[in-house]
TrEMBL record:
Family: Belongs to the 'phage' integrase family.
A GO MF label: DNA binding
Pfam assignment, any one: Phage_integrase
Organism, scientific name: Pelosinus propionicus DSM 13327
Lineage: Bacteria, Bacillati, Bacillota, Negativicutes, Selenomonadales
SUPFAM superfamilies from the UniProt entry: DNA breaking-rejoining enzymes
Domain of life (superkingdom): Bacteria
Alphabetic keyword roster: DNA recombination, DNA-binding
Protein name: Phage integrase family protein
Gene Ontology biological-process entries: DNA integration; DNA recombination
Annotated Gene3D superfamilies: Intergrase catalytic core (1.10.443.10)
Amino acid sequence: MIGGKLIQYQYDLKWYTFRISFTVNGIELPKVEKKERAVLSIEESIAFRENPKHKKHPLYAAFMLQLLTGIRRGEVLALRVKDIDYKNRLIHIRKNAVFLPKSGVVMQSPKTKASIRSIPMTEECKTILENHKQISNELKLFFCNEKGKPLNPRNYQRTFETIFAKDYEGITLHSLRRTFATTMCANGVDMSTTAKIMGHTDIRMIAEIYNQPQFDTLLTAMQKYETALKTPNATEEAPSEPQE
């Protein structure tokens, strides 16, 4: 373990020195532009949920759960049967599934207290979960593979991107979580509530990453501006310059 840390330290030091040498010589390495993450529009979200091919897939309920609640990939894969409380319409998030090279898929405790939470179920979400055909397994997982073993997070994501997202340009598995947050904010849900449902400790994450206005919102804003320009007395007259 110590040897591994030493190698990593040496690598980090060389990279740091490399960047400094470029900066000192007046050459700055190019900055990588962040790509705008895609989300599903309301129309796309409806079509996505109602797609007959999607509904027939064994993992339909898992992907819909992510879209309808905004929970993380590892959280949905770690859900146990007892975590779904139909009576009180709650989904209890207590674990996170991760893949470790030497151990395979393991269930770990979430990294933050905010990630341990209970999320209310909508009627649509409740119905989808009730209709999910569960496979008996030793860990009592709500979602598992055909052999009753935990789902590998990478394979789960690959399934989504090759089957569910192929008709939607730029959509990834994380887009489901982003769609949830963006839609919540666009419909007037405050960031604090959205952050709590999503398991974030800091609402700035919602503001900086998820709360980005979509085309419909921008169009509405422009239409309001257009209306203001055509409406008499819609804006205050600019103050006249004082006369000498």
